Amino acid sequence: MTDLTRLSAAALAEKIAAGEVTAVEATEAHLARIEAVDEKVHAFLHLDREGALAKAREVDAKREAGERLGPLAGVPLALKDIFTTEGIPTTVGSKILEGWVPPYDATVTRKLKEADVVVLGKTNMDEFAMGSSTENSAFGPTGNPWDLTRIPGGSGGGSSAALAAFEAPLALGTDTGGSIRQPAAVTGTVGVKPTYGGVSRYGMVAFSSSLDQGGPCARTVLDAALLHSVIAGHDERDSTSIDAPVPDVVAAARNGEVRGLRVGVVQEFSGEGYQAGVMQRFGESVELLRELGAEVVELSCPSFTKALAAYYLIAPSECSSNLARFDAMRYGLRVGDDGTHSAEEVTALTREAGFGDEVKRRVMLGTYALSSGYYDAYYGSAQKVRTLITRDFERAFAQVDVIVSPTTPTTAFPLGERADDPMAMYLADVCTLPVNLAGNAAMSLPCGLAPEDGLPVGLQIIAPAMADDRLYRVGAAVEAAFEARWGHQLLDEAPSL
Q: CATH number for the domain including 223?
């Protein structure tokens, strides 16, 4: 029998719909794979075996009754532990929410259930989505299946690792400054940050509300498109949700074509700090686009060089506000409530015990940036830079249809290498941050292995807001061309666990 864990989500869904494979068989195969390898990978924080099998049986019953199944019915999925799930723990990778069981589902969780997707469990992540390596998780780091001594990216390293380890064909992540795309790049998978407001944030634990965006993670562009179409759409419970039709990303992914498109290459996405092998594979990707009939246009977006500084004022400022709700009075961890401490002291003791170093660092930075006398100098100035970045994108998209760049300047670095150097860690997202600040859509997909270390390199494709379909159109064409050149999928070269 075909190894069900190696099938794409689209292929697996077709087999389930045709009755060639049951949803229970598909779910059991992935649960067995998780049990076999996740002790080494640590992609999952919580496995919902009973719930997953119950959903799978429900899908099989629908098929046997002749009911029409959705395009992903019965397909297993790994869910980042930032989305609330009724009856299943949601920790956001933090001790402060350890053991918390939400009483409601996030909108995307509800949509997954309605689409009959089988949620296997919750994946590991940097605490409150703050990090680029998943080393900031309160429950231990995740390993990269290509090399378990290296990082799987962050903050959604658990989701990307689950895909690369063939523990799930689909995963869901969130992207505040690159937390879907950077993990995809370093694990050889596909990750998409939809247009800001394109996927509901209701029930997604907030880090930086003007930047956070949920999105699909997969092993192929088509699989990502199918998942995107399930989770996207307007939600009246999210005040930032876009009330407009969802772009037809599935059709775009099925009909990849770049002939006649204008593709921009931004000179600011290069230079010092970029690994030679990453730039080599990016250069080959640009040449491939030319061979496929695209017109390549050189661009300059000067404000992009200020994106890192702007982001690390805006995001910490918003996080200091959002995390103020974790006060030990309503839910989550409570320390010092023995009758000898005031409410303020209980809150302080709880935050000291519950928040990790990176969270504390960003809360303090954000609180300082918002404080009286410093607001205009820091947060206000960062918002002005954000406007400049948005205008640079607008000028660029007046000349081109999409922009391409490396997703991240280096391949996966060793676990612990940047643990004591926050600035080096932050630089992992230097290519992805401008997209979040402007609210545009972007994708990362594999473009080869770096010759220095044999690890995956990601190509980033950026499209204007509400033009998410362009990502899939270009991504599908590039994916098909590369796989024709390689003769296989990139993940086929990954070492077996």
A: 3.90.1300.10
